[in-house]
Structures are given as C-alpha cells and as structure tokens.
Write a structure and sequence with these properties.
Rossmann fold; AB_hydrolase_fold; 2 domains; 578 residues; 51% helix; 15 helices
Length: 578
Amino acid sequence: MVSWSDVKQWNGSALAEAIGPLNREYNELINAGEDLGKIQSPDGWSGQAAQAAGSRCGELVEALGEWTGEIAAARTAFTATSDAIGGVKNGVTEAEEVAKANNFSIADDGSIADHGVPADTPQDQREAVAEERARVKTELEERVKNVLRSADDVDNDFCKVLDKILGDTVDADSDATSLAAAGKAGTKVGSLTIPTPPPLSDATVAQNAAWWATLSEAQRKRFIQDFPGQVGNRDGIPASDRSAANVLRIDDERTRLQNRIKQLQAERREHGGPGGVGEEMTINRKIARAEEKLDSLAAVERTVTDRHGEPKAGKQLMLLDTSGERVKAAVANGDVDKADHVAVFTPGMNSRVDTNLDDYVQDTDALKRHAEDELTRENRRGESVATVTWLGYEPPQTNPDGIFEAVVTGDSAEEGAPKLAEFYNGIDASRADNPHMTALGHSWGSLTQGYALRDHETGVDEAGFFGSPGIGTDSGKELNVPENHVYAWEAREDAVANIPGVVERYGKDVVEQDGIHHMSTEEYEPAPGQRTEASTGHSEYMKSERSQGQSSEVYQTSEYAMARIMIGSPDFTPVPEP
C-alpha cells in the first residue's frame, strides 16, 4: 500500500526524461530491422551459406522483435505513468490547499488534523463555520482516499508492466510481420488503466471531486471526449469540464429523441383505427413530450453555442438532463471555476428550458454586469463574478392536472432541493479555494432553495428569496446560512407571495421572519446620478433594460440590492415605502 508520505515524494520527471532515449532506441531498432530484412536474401546468393545467413538474420529479427516490444511497452508505460503521477500529485496539491484554507492539515499517514475554527472568525458566525468545517473534513477524507486509491492503481499497473519487461514475457506477437507490428503489441502491454469513476447514480460530491482531481489532464480529456455522459452532470467536477462534456452530448441526445419519436410514430400507426383511440392518445402525449424535449435541446444549444456549433465564450453548460417529464439544464455566465463571487439563481413556477432558459440567462448576465459595476465603484476591479441559472428540477406548470396538486403537496420543491444542495456543494468541492456564493430563489424556486438550505450544509454564504410563497421555515435562523446573511423581497401586487392558505403551508411569510432582512422594492437613488426603478407584480425583480440612446442599464431596486449582496457589500439604506 502506498502511503500519503510516499505519494507526496513522487516525481514523474525521471520517467518523462527517459521517454526521449527510449524513442531513439525504438527508432534505431526499427531501422535495423529494415536493414536486416534487405540483406536476409540477396539476389543471386544460394547454397548452405546463404541458408545459414538467412536463418541467422531471422533469429536476429525475432530477437529484435522481442526487444522492440519491450522498449515499446516501456515507452508507453513511462509516458502513461509520468502522466498519471501528475494527476495524483494534482490530487495531493488540491487536497492540501483545501486543508490549509480551512485550518486543517493532512498527516503523513493520511489522517486529517483539525486545528479548530479560525481565531479571527466572528462570534456570530462560529457555529455556521463549525458546521461547514465538518462538511469540508468529510470532503478531505474522500480526497485522501481517492488519491491513495489512484496511487495504488498506478503503482500496481506500472509494476505489472515492468515485471513483463524484466521477465521477458512481453508478447512480441508471433503473427507480427515487422518490428513495427511487434512495437504495437508492446504498446498494448505498456498501457495503464484509468481510475474508475464512482457510480454516477449515488456518488457524493466529495467522491466526484476527489476522483477527478487525481486524473491527469490527458485522462480528463479522454473521459470528456469518450465518455461525456460520465462527466457532464457530476457535481464536484469543474464547470469548464462539465460544460465541454455536456456540449458534446447535445447531438447524441437529439438523435436519441428523434429516434424515440420515430419509434412512437410507428407504434401509433400500428394502433390506429377503431378500438385504438385510447392507446393512440397516450402515444400522442409521449410524442408531444419528446418534441418538447427537442425544443428544449434547441434552446440550450442556442444559449451556449454559436451558429457554427462551437461553445460560446463566457457560457458554461453545467447540467443537461433529458430524463423525466422535461429537460433540466444549468447555464453559467462567466467562469464558475475562477470567479470570486458566484450566484446561483433558481426559477419558479411555469419555468421551462424550452420557453424560459434564454431569458433567464440574459437576466442573470445583466445581474453579473451590475455586480461587476458595483465592484468597480468600490475600486475592486480585480474581483470577478459568475452567475448560474439552475433549472435542475421540474417546477409546477399551469395546467388543469398538475399545478394545484404540485402547489399543495410541494413535491417538486422537495424533490429538487437535494439536487440544488448538491449543485451548491459541487461548486465548492470543484475548487481548492472557497468562492463567495449567493443563492437566489424566485417564486417556487425560493421554496426549493429554502428546503435545500434548511436541510443541507451547502457552503452558501448569502441567500435571497423573492416573490416567495414560503421557504419552509418560520425563522431565517433555521437556514444553514451565516446569521444576518438572508434577504427577502416582496413587491407590490405580487399575488404569489400572498396566496391564501399556501404561505401558511410553507411557513411564515418570508418578509416577516426574524433572521431575514426585508429588502425594499421601491424606487431608490443609491448614489448621486444613480437611480433604480420600483418592482411591481411577480416577475420584475430581476428585470433590467437599456433606455433608448443610453449606454447604461436601468435596474430594479431589488436587482441593485442583489448585486450588492453578491459582492459581499449589502446596502441596507432605508428606502421610503409608498
């Protein structure tokens, strides 16, 4: 078994340096084999001497074949092992950076030493920080375990190849007709395995992050290219890698849905005529659902790729899920892997990928720009922002069969909450640092967000709720968010925020709960020459627009407040009520 102290001392540079000389030896052997082949049976030479010479040349070629196979195996193994060591070392580096950033350390035996809540932590945040640290410790344990598992795999694979080389058991391929063919056989022997990913269905965020951290750059690219379905929807993997995989999946998902529609159409023809009306109606509903999913894929593609099908700069497709009744997706503006401030927006009722995704992504892009403007006003130009629209659940839709039951039972919010919590944690786990993260939930999305923050540790630093029918609590202090970092907006004429009987079902009115800042939605002048507009109704909280002939955008008061919260500088200036 490889220990943590062993892995810390690993260095693949010696193996990398040996690849060049092995390449030269390999090429010299190939050339020598060609020369021997030319002199093996010179024209016009016959007799016993010629036969003896030919036999000897054959023996030499065979010996060279074995040697070529061994060198090819060594060359491949040295290249793969050096590359794999780089991945393992990356896993070590990331684990130690996470440990240091959170006041832990990793002992030589791989155990996690807890040095306590940092002394400079404010008293009112110590409890929340302690709870967050318990989550981080679990993540660190997973990272260490996966690093050591990968290290054992690399060590065992490399030793097996060396045993074959040193034990003269490299198969030079008895059917090979050239040294090059023997070299190809040796290359197969020298190949190493890639660490198997944790099960996609029940892997934790920490397990996903730990597995990905131990892969080399070449191994990651291979997984993205060859197995994008194993990468794109794994919380804990960097957003850029998830996006690359998910963009690759769009065509395959479209083809699968098109084939499904053709299959259903064939079934409909079989069930046509008298007596088949009920079955035909069922098939028609299935076809309509598949066609809606195709429309959703088209909406995703328009949002994240250009007209040539290439990924758009500044867009990341962090989720693409075609299972269930409707397509789920998450699209980011900016670079979630590097941004200092990340905000995740969860939309509410009647939200669908095919009809709403593009508008939401535009709204959150405007919110990102506004937050960056506020950073500039504070002379913090070096800080960056990313926003994410998360439609990773299926909000209730307005239809005679579903909306009443969905609103009364809250099933969609309860089912979506764990997924949203995993998504938050995945952003944290995919990075060695700890970004300042804001959760923003609108309408039914605020209830989903409330359940996620109430029932799970997520790493969220700020939480905002607007147009909310309730968040599943009677006090903001029930949420796993630092104290005094929860905010709520309720605009005039917002009927959803005051549906009789529904608010009580999902907890006390959000703007009346203790531990939650009630933020204004009225017109406001936050600075000389700067003006915001009042929000009214249920859907204006995040709206912004450029006035004709103006270069600057006019923001809603609520959006201005969200931007300030996102950068960690909330504005609590009282705003006159109407």
